[in-house]
Amino acid sequence: MQILSIKFKKINLITSSGNFEVYPNDVVLPSFREMVVTGIAKKDDFGIYSLPNNYPFLVVSYKALKILLNKNCNNIQGQQIPDNIDLESYFQSIYIKIQNGDDFPYLHESMFFKNK
Fold it and tell me: Residue ranges of the domains in the chain?
C-alpha cells in the first residue's frame, strides 16, 4: 500500500523525559522521524483539518488507519466521520467535547475492517 499524503523528516535532536530515566544507562533511543502530513482532510489518506482558531485535527482514511494499527500504533483515539457532513460544524462540536474533557474511544481494527 502506498501513501502519498505524508513525508518523513529526519529528526536531528532527540531528548529524553523523566519517563526515560527509569531505564538503564546503556539503553539507546532509536532513530525517530517526524511524520509531516501534506494531504487534504477527507480527500487524501492523511490530512489536517484546522478550525478557524487553528486547532488541528488529523483525519485519516481507512487505508491509513489500517497501516497505523498494523504498525503497532495502539493508542489512537477518535471516531468515524459521517459521510456528507459539514467538516467545520463537525470539528467544532468535537473541539467543544475536548474542551469539556470528554474522552474518545481507542480505535482498533475490528471496529472498521470486518468486511473490507
Answer: 6-111
Q: What is the pLDDT of residues 67-93, one digit of tens each?
A: 888 877 777 888 888 888 888 898 999
Contact 67, 35 (CB under 8 A): no
For 7-29, write each residue's pLDDT tens digit.
989 888 777 666 666 666 777 76
- Hey, what's the cell of 8? 518523513
Burial code (b: 16+ CB inside 10 Å, e: under 16) for 42-71 equals: eebbbbebeeeeeeebebbbeebbbbbbee
Predicted structure pTM score? 0.71
Burial 23-40 (b: 16+ CB within 10 A, else e): eeeeeeeeeeeeeebebe
